[in-house]
Specification:
The protein has about 400 residues and is mainly beta. It folds into two domains: about 50 residues, no CATH class; about 325 residues, Kelch-type beta propeller (Neuraminidase). The chain is about 10% helix and about 45% strand. The strands form six sheets. A six-stranded mixed sheet has the order 25-24-3-2-1-26, with no helix packed on it. Strands 4-5-6-7 form a four-stranded antiparallel sheet, with no helix packed on it. Strands 8-9-10-11 form a four-stranded antiparallel sheet, with no helix packed on it. A hairpin with a 2-residue loop joins strand 20 and strand 21. Pfam families: F-box, FBA_3.
Length: about 400
């Protein structure tokens, strides 16, 4: 005869268990902060969340969903102490809000005075300073300090540098140019540092020859297994002729090639007449885009997209903006372009051709998690930038800074 407690237990339905595939699918839709906490629930969950295939699926889901509502942006900033010790921080901001949240801040062990740009890919941000270079994942708060290069006469912040994802090996690679002087002439070289390997990162020299120099003042962009720069207008390598083109570094074969700019941008009369022209690179909707600003009679800005046509590349005009000052498109939203005007973020309506100010970042303030007190953010900061942000679990390496 069963007791009342035994009878009650026998009548209870067994607790249903979700299939592992469904659990994994649910987890891919969660933010990184939650996933990092869930790794402590069990060894099975930790193994699932740490699995490279799960990390890629989570990244794909995060990238696909980030523009469905108010898109997130990462505000990259740095500040200096009086003794030159640097602080690098990342704040997350969403359109339509008046506050930005501090995601991660790091006091760097080395001293630096300058940070010019922030190349980014798959939620990772490269921070080259004038003393060394760092690779951050702000969402996981991981950081790796890249080793010093034995080459070069130009500090890292003035040396063309970029990074991206090698689709063949699945690894991330940092690529930089260096200069050496030989027989009173300058020679270019290229070196690569693979991050995420079990072994400590090291630079590998893969090319030491004359080549066109990339413009260090234009942030490199990475898309579809390649890193792209604009050729520097000052041709001090002695190569002739000096074409107007992009440099492309293939991350799989580690080969350098050049892609000519649209023929409409190669008017020799512009050079003779000192026509003001400037170029910016962006990745919009998964395409490498070139923004060309030209001031001759009237101000004109055209956004071109680079389309791969079998074994070649073709430029296709995407958008034309009239009467615009130089700016940098950083995101494409339905029917609009999001433009960065050196301290201001604006929306350009492609149909009505109206420009609307979204946020003046000189007045933006940020609040650290857990702090109920607002603090001024930009009053004492010499430099910051705004980049589209896709948070990810992608590791930067097992070696601390």
């Amino acid at each position: 005869m069963m007791t009342s407690n035994e009878q009650k237990q026998s009548n209870e339905a067994p607790t249903p268990e979700l299939p592992d595939e469904l659990v994994s699918d649910i987890l891919t839709r969660l933010p990184v902060k939650s996933l990092l906490r869930f790794k402590c629930i069990s060894k099975a969950w930790c193994a699932t969340i740490s699995d490279p295939s799960f990390i890629r699926r989570h990244l794909k889901m995060s990238a696909a969903c980030r523009w469905e509502q108010n898109p997130p942006f990462l505000i990259t900033r740095h500040s200096l102490d009086y003794d030159g010790k640097g602080d690098i921080g990342f704040c997350q901001w969403q359109q339509g809000t008046s506050e930005a949240w501090l995601v991660h801040s790091r006091d760097c062990t080395s001293y630096f005075n300058l940070v010019l740009f922030f190349p980014h890919c798959d939620g990772l941000v490269l921070v080259p300073t004038d003393t060394t270079a760092y690779l951050f994942n702000p969402a996981t708060r991981d950081i790796v300090t890249l080793p010093e290069s034995s080459h070069g006469i130009v500090p890292p912040s003035l040396r063309p540098i970029g990074f991206g994802h090698d689709l063949r090996s699945g690894m991330y690679k940092v690529v930089q140019f260096f200069l050496r002087s030989r027989d009173d002439e300058f020679y270019n070289g290229v070196e690569v540092c693979t991050v995420g390997d079990p072994a400590p990162p090291q630079w590998r020299e893969i090319m030491a020859d004359r080549w066109y120099t990339a413009d260090p003042w234009v942030t490199a962009q990475s898309v579809n297994g390649g890193v792209y720069w604009i050729v520097h207008v000052d041709n001090y390598t002695g190569l002739e002729p000096h074409p107007r083109c992009l440099l492309r570094f293939g991350l799989d074969d580690e080969a350098l090639s050049h892609i000519h700019l649209p023929s409409e941008l190669s008017d020799p009369e512009d050079d003779d007449n000192n026509v003001d022209k400037s170029f910016k690179l962006s990745v919009l909707q998964g395409e490498l885009c070139l923004t060309a600003y030209r001031a001759r009679g009237h101000r004109l800005m055209v956004v071109w997209a680079l389309v791969e046509d079998e074994a070649s590349f073709v430029w296709e005009p995407r958008h034309t903006l009239n009467g615009m000052d130089p700016c940098h498109p950083i995101a494409f939203l339905p029917g609009t372009l999001l433009l960065w005007f050196y301290g201001k973020l604006c929306i350009y309506d492609l149909r009505s051709r109206e420009l609307t100010n979204v946020c003046d970042f000189s007045w933006l303030r940020y609040r650290s998690h857990g702090s109920g007190e607002l603090e001024p953010a930009w009053n004492s900061l010499p430099f910051f930038d705004v980049i589209p942000y896709t948070e990810s679990l992608v590791p930067v390496g097992a070696h601390p800074a």
